Amino acid sequence: MSDQRWSYLTDMDGVLVHEEHLIPGADEFLAELRNGGASFLVLTNNSIYTPRDLRARLLHSGLDVPEEAIWTSALATAKFLQAQRPNGSAYVIGEAGLTTALHEVGYVLTDNDPDYVVLGETRTYSFTAITRAIRLIERGARFIATNPDPTGPSREGILPATGSIAALIERATGRSPYYVGKPNPLMMRSALRALGAHSEHTLMIGDRMDTDVHSGIEAGLQTVLVLSGISTRESAERYPFRPTLVVDSIADLVGRTEDPFGAA
């Protein structure tokens, strides 16, 4: 590859943690990145939490990740809207992670003729709020969704997530949302800008072929699939694209962060 130091983008759930439990080796991997001076960002399609919230949750799992090293679909959505329509307005269905990110880029949150309807993740989707969103979109508001994930995990089983609610709104309005999060490579490119890194020397680590590896490849990154989350070796073979490297878990990259492919 190249003698230049690698930068790393890594998914969170299924790579570093699983249902708030540390995946063995994740702490050693992040410590090796810090000790080696490698730049990195932890990425998540989940828009519920702010980076501060996620830092606290990761600390509880045994991982010390600074706020500035956490990049969410909410942050990527806010950056996208700031670039598209600075100081605009939005009607938001979501939690603090999304509303805080939009406020911080100068957006006004309103249900009075907003520029955008922005749909994010929440554990308490309201039929009233969804109906309001449908009516605003019918009146001309542009439809944005933070990510296309149809379901999310919980201790009791799967939950409907942003993609499922977006499908409901799309069916009612006939208007498709623009998804900002993975697998849209926009999420990766916004993360690269936040990191100050170049795609040629950046590696994406994820547990899903359909989001992590897909978006990594489209953004021009080298990709590593870990088998500690969603995708398996068998399911990965069904895709027309391949990750650069497949490993059982993040632990397999410990000791290899300077030259992850040379040691393969």
UniProtKB/TrEMBL annotation:
Keywords: Carbohydrate metabolism, Hydrolase, Magnesium, Metal-binding
A family per Pfam: Hydrolase_like
InterPro entries, A to Z: HAD-like_sf, HAD-SF_hydro_IIA, HAD_sf
Necessary cofactors: Mg(2+)
GO cellular component: cytoplasm
GO molecular function annotations of the record: metal ion binding; phosphatase activity
Binding-site positions, Mg(2+): D11, D13, D207
Free-text remark on how the cofactor is bound: Divalent metal ions. Mg(2+) is the most effective.
Gene3D superfamilies: HAD superfamily/HAD-like
Protein residues bound to substrate: K182
Source species, domain of life: Bacteria
Residues the record marks as active site: D11 (nucleophile), D13 (proton donor)
Family matches, as PANTHER family: 4-NITROPHENYLPHOSPHATASE-RELATED, HALOACID DEHALOGENASE-LIKE HYDROLASE DOMAIN-CONTAINING PROTEIN 2
NCBIfam families the UniProt entry points to: HAD-SF-IIA
Protein family: Belongs to the HAD-like hydrolase superfamily.
Protein name: HAD family hydrolase
Species annotation: Prauserella cavernicola
